[in-house]
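We append the chain.
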Amino acid sequence: MRAIWTGAISFGLVNIPVKLFSGAESTSLDLDMLRKNDLCPIKYLRVCKRDNQEVPFEEIVKGYEYTDGEYIVLTDEDFQNANVKKTKLIDILDFVQESEIDTRYFEKPYYLEPDKTGAKPYALLLEALKRSGKVGIATYVLRNKGNLGVLKPYDDVLVLNQMRYASEVRNYKELKLPENQSLRDQEIELALTLIGQLTVPFDPAKYHDTYVEDLKRIIEEKSKGLQPTPAEEAPQPTKVVDLMALLKESLEKKKREAA
C-alpha cells in the first residue's frame, strides 16, 4: 500500500508521527463510455468556456469566484499555509463511547502506521483505547478539505474512520413515514421469532458484491451472442392481508433450511 498522507496524531501533549493509508478499495466494474453507433471510446477534455479550446492539465489552477467573474487563485502553498498545523495533524479533541455515535456519520476507513520514532506512543494509545473502550474524535485535513474522524483500535492497528459532519446528514423528518399503524402482538412475536432465527455472528467475509457477479454474467452471455436473462424477478410489495401468512412461511422456510 502507498501512504496518502503523513503527519502526526496529537494525543494531549504527545505527537505520534504516522502515515495514513486507505482502508477501502472499490470492487465496481470499470466501464468505458462509448459512442452508440460505432462503439468509439469517448475522451473527456478540459475545455475553456470562453474560447472552447482544450486546456492542458499543467496549465489548470484552482480559483475561488469572490465576485461575479472575478477569481482569486489558490496554490498548493496557499492550502498548506491556511493552517500548517492542521494540515499535518490528526488532532484528538474528545474521547467518547463508540456506541454513542450514530452509524449515519461513518464514511470511510483509513489505517495509521507509526513512524519508527512513534512506535512506543502509538502502541500506548492503541492499548489505552482498547482498555478504556473509548474512541477518539479528531479533526484533520486531507486533500485540501477539513474532516472529522473517529480514531479507534482494531487488532494491532489504529483506524481513522472519516465521518460526516452533522450538517452533512439530512433530516429524515421530511419523509412521509407511517403513523398509527395497528400492529397485533401475534405479528410482532412472529417477526421477533424470524429475526431470532436469522441472527448469526457477524462475519464480513461472508458478504460480497453479487451484483457485480451478475453484471459479469451478462457480459459473458452477450460476448457469446446470447440474449441475457435476468437472474431474478423484481420483488412485489407485500400485501397487508398476507403479512401473517408470509411471516409464518418465512419461519417454515428457515426451519427447512436448518434441517
